[in-house]
Amino acid sequence: MRRDPIFYQLFQRFPGLLFDLIGDQPSNAGAYRFDSVAVKEPKFEIDGVFLPPESEPGVVYFCEVQFQKDEKLYERVFGESLLYFYRNTEKFSDWQAVILYPSRSTEQSKVYPHRSLLNGPQVHRIYLDELGDVWSLPVPIAAVVLTIVKEADAPAVARHLLERTEQETFTPEERSDIIDIVTSIMVYKLANLSRTEIKAMLGLDLTVEPRAIREAKDEGREEQTIALIVRLLAKRLGQGIEPEAVSQLTTLSLPTLENLSEALLDFTTLDDLENWLATNHEI
Predict the structure, then answer these.
(1) 50 CB-contact burial (10 Å; exposed 0-12 / middle 13-18 / buried 19+)
(2) How far is CA 143 from the centre of its chain?
(3) pLDDT digits (tens, 9 = 90+) for 60-94
(4) In 67-192, where does DSSP find H-type helix?
């Protein structure tokens, strides 16, 4: 299952979810925003960063979602995080790191060199399979756990979450966000079904356009979507994207861009991107 875009959606729409996961809510939790940041010399990008409001120095949270074993994950995460904090120390009072794993078996084996950080209060390791019963967890956290639920059980869990969304005291905007996210998770998990088939299976109104698409049309969020896709492609392929390819992205509709955000996580070379664009070009 290709999860990166799902977690981007979750954290962008519910930034407070990070603090629910680690059990520590700063007083200004609602003012945090989820973003990606870049550090030059050497050049790299950190995709998941929770930034405090700029009005006063606060804690910056680095977030990594890791569903495949990476034996140098901690070296990279701590190296990048500390360098970014060093370069921007006047903006922040402290830093913390949050790493989300599906289970302990995904964690890198060599942890001893990082024992002081891993066993201290600055680093939070979250194992999704240990968060509790998905049927009774708070809905946003349960949506995170839905990403690891077995395919056969996922439809029943998804319908349960949508029922709870209608019953509990969410705002209309929050309810719409949860519906969009649960639907997207199911699209990833059940790749043989279309989004329309998924929505029908979940009992959703097929005439209602997803909030993400409505907002993009109303507020011009296509540019943000393209910027996110460019970052994901660079991370996936290990190299920058040519301006010509970026220019092609600007001609795509938002639904097509959303399809690309799912497809790109299977790409291994720039040829894969070029072939996809050739197949999915729009007139």
Answers:
(1) buried
(2) 12
(3) 999 999 988 999 999 999 999 999 999 999 999 99
(4) 73-87, 115-118, 139-146, 154-167, 172-189
